[in-house]
Amino acid sequence: MNSVSKLAGAVTDSGSKDIPYCRKQKSLGLLCSNFLSLYDHDGIESIGLDDAASKLGVERRRIYDIVNVLESVGILSRKAKNRYTWKGFGAIPKALENLKREGLRDIVPAADASCSEKISDDEEDEMCSDMNSLSQNDRSDSSSLLKRDGRKEKSLGLLTQNFVKLFLCTDMDMISLDDAAKLLLGDGKHTSMTTRTKVRRLYDIANVLSSMKFIEKTHHPETRKPAFRWLGLTGKPDSSIADSLIPSDSKKRIFGTDLTNATTTKRLRMDEDRFKILKAHNQVQVKHENENEDETITAGKSYQFGPFAPANPPKVGDSHDGEGKEAVDWESLASSYRPQYHNQALKDLFSHFVEAWQSWYSEVAGKGPMQLMS
DNA sequence: TCCTCCCGCCACACG
DNA sequence: CGTGTGGCGGGAGGA
Predict the structure, then answer these.
(1) What mean pLDDT value characterizes chain A?
(2) For chain A, N or C: smaller number of CB within 10 Å?
């Protein structure tokens, strides 16, 4: 009964006299924030799209956008038509870990096309699914949710996951949407329209992820070009949960390596030259470029979350694929996470999240050892 | 001007 | 055929 609020309203008004328009008020990011604060309360377990749309005062179409990306990160899960299940922030760590595992397993989808002719506009479809393997329970499948599609998941959802994987499975921590787009789909040789479209989507995704503080917009120190860098679950309440999630013990170890300068240690090599282009544009290797990311580590306790440890088997020579691909040196990829700082200048919104995090944290921590999936 | 990216048309999936 | 989903890209707001 308590209509939270109709922020960014002025949509269906008739005689709008003030508030001309203001595009900012209708951004996906803001909408996402509202959406989150609207449903992130204990008790919520189901979300109706219509309900959300009307409560947030936006058209349905926009809700789909939000929901799709949120689902990609594990916060939501489609239950049925018009119905989503609220998983909460607690589901994020696990979801991210799965994403990382997937990402490592089949480095950047799209098999090996892009070599030359393969101009298929929509390759990336192999890995499909998102919580396929190792999703809790689901023993006797038969669940109507698991659709045997693969074609359907065309964009947003998958794009979001792949975008995130880029951060989790690669050592580059600053990615421009343009590079991400090129990377996420075939080569980057034909600046066709496909890329432009992808970039548009990435803007949407980035806005949503930004509003959740998963990523942050910055600029390349030199290029001055706007790019995004991963924040992940950094600075969150505590990282203890990580321990219960990480079976392996090697997680702190590699950690220190990233800031230092494991530079030429053994940069990962993509079989493609896809990453080449990135390397060209911006340094992709292990971040050795730390001009000012270690200084501002205020916060009495900058938790270096290590949610995604290389729990997977040490694939030095080859991943367990069966395609006869080249080997990949996944050594320094663990550098996905690095100490992060967060000043207190964070908005009110953030405080809301902190609360949420602590909430789920205590829940998870108290519930006991979250059995590691595997 | 170039970068962002909102809006909503309309194709596709279901039932 | 109606309804729910959600690609896709035009083109307008913003810096």
Answers:
(1) 60
(2) N
Residue nearest to nucleotide C8 (CA to C1'): A197
Residue A278: what pLDDT? 40
DSSP for A149-205, please give it: -SSS--SHHHHHHHHHHHHHHSS--EE-HHHHHHHHSS-SS---HHHHHHHHHHHHH
Q: Which of A168, A266, A185, A176 is nearest to A222 (CA)?
A: A176
Q: Answer left, alpha or beta for residue A331, where phi above 0 means left and psi between -120 and 50 means alpha.
A: alpha
Strand C nucleotides, any atom under 7 Å from protein beta carbons: they are 4-11, 13-14
Q: Where are the extended beta strands (E) located within chain A? A: 46-48, 76-80, 83-86, 174-175, 215-219, 226-230
Give distance CA A155 / C1' C7 (Å).
8
Strands A83-86 and A46-48: antiparallel
Q: Name the pTM for this structure.
A: 0.60
Query: A102-137 pLDDT, tens per residue?
Result: 888 866 444 444 333 333 333 333 333 333 333 333
Q: What angle do CA A336, A210, A251 make, to 5 degrees?
A: 20
